[in-house]
C-alpha cells in the first residue's frame, strides 16, 4: 500500500512515521502517553504569518522589536523560518536568538492568591499533557537559539524534575549549566494548627546552553557583601603551599590559598606600609598616588586581632554569582498581572547572558517583564502571548517605561516595536494589501513554498506538498469570478502536466462554487479560500481556536491553538447610566446581550454569554493607541448582573470600550465624555448602543 501511495505522488499517513522512522533509542528517557517524535513536531507545526496591527514609533534600522498575539508554537515555527532566511539576526550578525527565557504555567490545580485575596490563576494542564505541551515548544526553541545561546526555564517544584529530563533529551546533558534557586513569596503559618508540609519558598530556573562552548558574560558577577579582608587559608593540604607568612603556617589539613611567589609580592605592600594603618583608605590613597587601578593591586596583612594572614578585596570588586539567588525575589507582587516576575530577576538573567542589541525571546510573555527589562538594557526583543489581557498589559507597560530596574525613575521612550497578529487575522486589511504582499501572505497562510514556475504557459506561484499553487490576482482582475468553467479551462490547458492535485488561492467571495474541491479526470482542484479555516485533509492536525480567559483563575492557562482564523467581531448591545455608589456618582456600563461568531474545525459556530471573555476600558482614549486602564472578566461582570462601574472623575474627553470574546475577537466602541449627564439615573440609561459587527 505504501508503494502505491508513493506512486500516486501522495504523502504517507503521519501515523506511519513510527514504523518507517522509529525514534532514536536512548539509554534512558522520559516515556509517557502522547509523546511525539521530535521530527514530526518540527514538520507538522504550522508556520502562521505575522500580520502587523500597529507600530509604535518609527523604525529607522534593520530591526524592530516584536509583540506577537498568537499561539507560541506556531509563532516560533514562523520565527524559525525567519532565522533560516537570515531575517532573525543579532547585531553582531549571528542568526537566531541569544537568550530565551520562559515562565510557563506550572501545571498545578492549586490556586494561588493575589495580593487582594483573589485567585490569581489555576493551571489545568497537568501530567503528561503538560510535559508534552512544553516539550513541543522546547524542541523548536532549541532550533531558534544561536550556537552560543542560552535558555532559562522558570518552574516550581511540581514538574521541574520531568522538565529537567526532557531538556536533557533535547539539549543534551552536557548543555545543562545550573539549577538556579530564586526566592518566591513566603507564607505564614500563624493561622495553621496543623502543618502538612514545609513552606515552598523558592522557584527553580533551569539554565541550558545551546552548545558546550557557550560562555556566560562578566555581568554574572555581583557585588560582594560583607568584609573586604578575607582569611588566607583554604581546606585540604597541598605540598608547597604551607610556607610561612607573618611567622605563621596554615593549620593541619589546610593550606594558603595563594602561590608563594604571588603572596611574597603582595606582602611587600604590607611591609611598605607596616608603620601605617593598612585599611581600605590607605590602599585607595596608594593606588591613586601611583596611578594603578585598585582592582589590579594585591595586598596581604596580618589580621590585627590574631596576626594570621588575610587578603584584601576592594569595594569595587566582585565575586561570581552562585546559583542561589536569595538576594532578589522572583515576583514583583504587583496588582497588575498574576504571577508577574520581578525586573531584578530578568535584569540579572539578561545581563549575564546577552550583549547590547542581542535578541531576547519570551514565548510566555505574561505581563511583559522580559521585554521591559530587555528594552531598558538595550537588547532586541520578541514577546509572544496568546492572551489579549497580556498583550494590552505589555503595550501599556512599554508605553509607560521608567528608566530604573523596578520601574522607577524618569520616563523613557521605548524603541520602536510592532504589534502583530499570528493565527487570527483581519481580512479587510489583508484584502487591501498590494499584490506582492497579498501573494506572499496567501502562500504563507496555507504553508506553500514560494516557487514561481510555469506549466503549459500558465504562470504559477508556489508548491504545496509538491503540487502547484496559483494565487489568484483579485487586484488585477476586479469583479472576475472563479467558477466550475474556470476550473475546466485550467484542466484543459494543463491537466496532463500537473499531477493529481492543483491549488487555487483567492478571496472567498471570488469562488462561485461552495465545495472545497472539484475532481476532473483523476485530478483534484482545491479552492483555498481567504478567509477560511480548514480543509481537513490538507492539514496534519485539526484546527483549534485561541481561548481567552473568562475569569481570573484562567489567566495563565496553557493554550494549544492550531491553524488560523479570521477576526469576526462580536455583536454587543449595551447601555450607559450614572449611578450613585458609596456617596459618589459613577458611570455604569451594562451589557444587555452578547453574541460571537467563530469558525471552529472548519464549521461556523455561534455563541452568546458563554463566549464572553472580558471588557477593557481606556478612560482617556487619544484616538490612536488603546491604553488599558481597567479590565473586568466575565466572572466578575456576571456577579454584577453584567455591569461594570468606573469613576467619572477619571474620564477624559473620549472613552474606549473593548469587548472581547473567548476566541480573541474584539468589538470596540468610543464614548464621548459629554454623553454622561448628572441628571441620568440607572433607570434611565444615557445611551443604548449596538456595536458594529
Overview of this protein structure:
By secondary structure, the chain is an alpha/beta fold. It has four domains: 2-188 and 196-220 and 322-422, Vaccinia Virus protein VP39 (Rossmann fold); 225-316, no CATH class; 431-530; 567-690, Immunoglobulin-like (Sandwich). 21% of the residues lie in helices and 30% in strands. Strands 1-19-2-16-15-3-4-6-5-14 form a ten-stranded mixed beta sheet, sandwiched between helices. Strand 17 (402-404) and strand 18 (408-411) form a beta hairpin. The protein is globular, with a radius of gyration of 31 Å.
CATH topology of the largest domain: Rossmann fold
Number of strands: 36
User: How far from one another are the termini?
Assistant: 50 Å
Q: Give the structural class.
A: alpha/beta
Helix content: 10-25%
- Name the beta content range: 25-35%
CATH level-four homologous superfamily name of the largest domain: Vaccinia Virus protein VP39
At CATH level 2, the architecture of the largest domain is 3-Layer(aba) Sandwich
Radius of gyration over all CA atoms, rounded: 31 Å
Across the major sheet, the strand order is: 1-19-2-16-15-3-4-6-5-14
Low-confidence stretches: 109-125, 679-688
Principal-axis shape equals: globular
Major sheet size, sense and barrel closure: 10 strands, mixed
Q: Any descriptors?
A:
693 residues; alpha/beta; Rossmann fold; 4 domains; 10-stranded mixed sheet; 15 helices; 21% helix
